[in-house]
Hints:
The complex is a heterodimer.
Chain A: H1 10-20, H2 30-38, H3 42-55, E1 58-65, E2 74-82, H4 87-95, E3 100-105, E4 116-122, H5 125-139, E5 143-157
Antiparallel strand pairs in A: 2-4, 2-5, 3-4
Helix pairs in contact in A: 2-3
Chain B: H1 3-12, H2 22-30, H3 34-46, E1 50-57, E2 65-71, H4 78-86, E3 91-97, E4 103-109, H5 112-126, E5 131-133, E6 137-141
Antiparallel strand pairs in B: 2-4, 2-5, 3-4
Helix pairs in contact in B: 2-3
GO molecular function (chain B): DNA binding; lyase activity
Protein name (chain B): Siroheme decarboxylase NirG subunit
Pathway (chain B): Porphyrin-containing compound metabolism
Amino acid sequence: MSACTCPSDPDLTHRLIDLTQAGLPLVDDPWAWIAERLGISREQALQLLQQLQRDGAIRRIAAVPNHYRLGYRHNGMTVWDVEDARMDQLGPLVGAQPFVSHCYRRPRRDGWRYNLFAMVHGRSAEDIDRDRQRIRQLLGDACRADDMLVSSRILKKTGLRLNRPAPTDRAQAPSQESSSCSE
Amino acid sequence: MDDLDRRLINRLQHGLPLVPQPWQALANELNSQPQLLRQRVQALLDDGTLTRFGPMFDIERVGGAFTLAALAVPEERFDTVAEQLHAMPEVAHNYRRGHAWNMWFVLACATPDGISASIAHIEQLTGLPVLNLPKEETYHVGLHLPV
């Protein structure tokens, strides 16, 4: 076949994203399905995926659950105003807690004082209150204020989808309802 | 949802193994059959328990960009603005949250320039200022919801 076998070929990577960002079909041989559409061999397709996973470009090929349907009806975005000088020490500590799914430092803005974000998920309001309390203990006097923004409704959850200028002769992605990257 | 569904959901949140026969490998692990596992995943997608099955790309590692942003939407306009954002492919997730900043969404674009263009578009569309909070440091990413 014709395509470059180099796994880090950006064009091939982008074609793979276009092909699979809406989902991978549930077929016996998904690597062959990808290979056929990218014009590479089955072995090359598997190598490409392995390479991208090693590089961190693909986190994993996974099933993304609907939190609510699994009983995790409560999700809280806890936000913290943490002393800048102590962030390098405290951010990783909060991120390492098993009940924290995502943890980031973000900028302060006019009307927004919080610079540390930690997402928590639970089956009850008490669960996430307890998680918040644990984070508060970890941060101690480095935290000047905090809040927890609880989600009351999912307005959209299609996941990350990139629109690129369309190359011609594009294979159709399988029709799953949604796509997701990092969540 | 039965025991096999639970084990399958827990296992698949960690990802399909990148081996020559991935479904067979999964079936061996779960003491099941590849065809049955795929049927179960399809059923879980169909009933909305799973929202997606496929590669999870780190957008930033492939040249793309994303950000977390928020709007403070007047209550009487909330549904209209939610629909306006829903129609934008750049809006990946959008949640209503209990706060003065009551609408929180993730924007994902193929390029960093796309983010600022999307924000400008939303501000023009809604007449509301966007609170743009791109991450400056990642301390942890790894949602796992055991069932």
